């Protein structure tokens, strides 16, 4: 699944609802192999929406657990929206009012074993990509996140 969430800084309640709806969608369409969720979630790792998705907080009386690829195998800071990028700087100045605003908003989340006992998704590496201009042009206002994941059936599942 690829997704994005409400972008306004004070919209965490909307991002919380989005995270619950996203997990409900996964539950309805679950397959044997672990679910991969990738996208611009517009929230830092300590936000309630991300804490819910990574199994650190319940929301609406429910809990789930996806593994944050960056947390497991990330290289560097993982900041994907930063004023170093002129495309993000314009937004940071207009929306946030701060030039030195650097955040990790983009994620690859991997479904946990308990939700997918017949499959395995082992995160090998995670890194920021598209984090510099190409021929003088920045590809986006966000850096990309590239993750190497070994996905396979679980030989021990029955």
Low confidence ranges: none
Largest sheet: 4 strands, mixed
How do the helices and strands follow one another from N- to C-terminus? EHEHEHEHEEEE
Average predicted confidence as pLDDT? 90
Number of extended strands:
8
Structural class: alpha+beta
C-alpha end-to-end distance: 26 Å
Amount of beta strand: 25-35%
The rounded Rg comes to 16 Å
Looking at the structure, what is the overall shape?
globular
Helix percent reads: 10-25%
Biggest sheet: strand arrangement: 1-2-6-3
Number of helices: 4
Structure overview:
It is a single chain. The chain is an alpha+beta fold and 158 residues long. It has helices at residues 12-28, 48-53, 69-73, 86-96, and strands at 2-4, 36-40, 66-68, 81-82, 102-103, 106-111, 119-129, 144-153. The strands form three sheets. The protein has a four-stranded mixed β-sheet. It has a two-stranded antiparallel ribbon with strand order 4-5. Strand 1, helix 1 (12-28) and strand 2 (36-40) form a beta-alpha-beta unit. The protein is globular, with a radius of gyration of 16 Å.
Name a few traits of the molecule.
158 residues; alpha+beta; single chain
Give a brief rundown of this model.
The chain is of the alpha+beta class and 158 residues long. The protein has four helices and eight strands; from the N terminus they run βαβαβαβαββββ.
């Amino acid at each position: 699944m690829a997704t994005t969430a409400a972008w306004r800084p004070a919209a965490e309640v909307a991002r919380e609802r989005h995270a619950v709806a996203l997990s409900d969608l996964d539950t309805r369409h679950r397959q044997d192999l672990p679910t991969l969720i990738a996208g611009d979630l517009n929230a830092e790792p300590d936000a309630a929406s991300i804490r819910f998705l990574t199994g650190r907080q319940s929301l609406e009386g429910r809990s789930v657990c996806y593994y944050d690829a960056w947390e497991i195998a990330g290289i560097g800071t993982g900041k994907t929206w930063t004023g170093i990028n002129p495309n993000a700087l314009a937004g940071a100045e207009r929306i946030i009012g701060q030039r030195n605003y650097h955040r990790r908003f983009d994620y690859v989340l991997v479904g946990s074993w308990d939700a997918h006992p017949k499959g395995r998704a082992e995160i090998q590496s995670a890194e920021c990509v598209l984090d510099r201009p190409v021929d003088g042009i920045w590809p986006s206002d966000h850096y990309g996140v590239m993750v190497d994941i070994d996905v396979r059936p679980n030989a021990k599942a029955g």
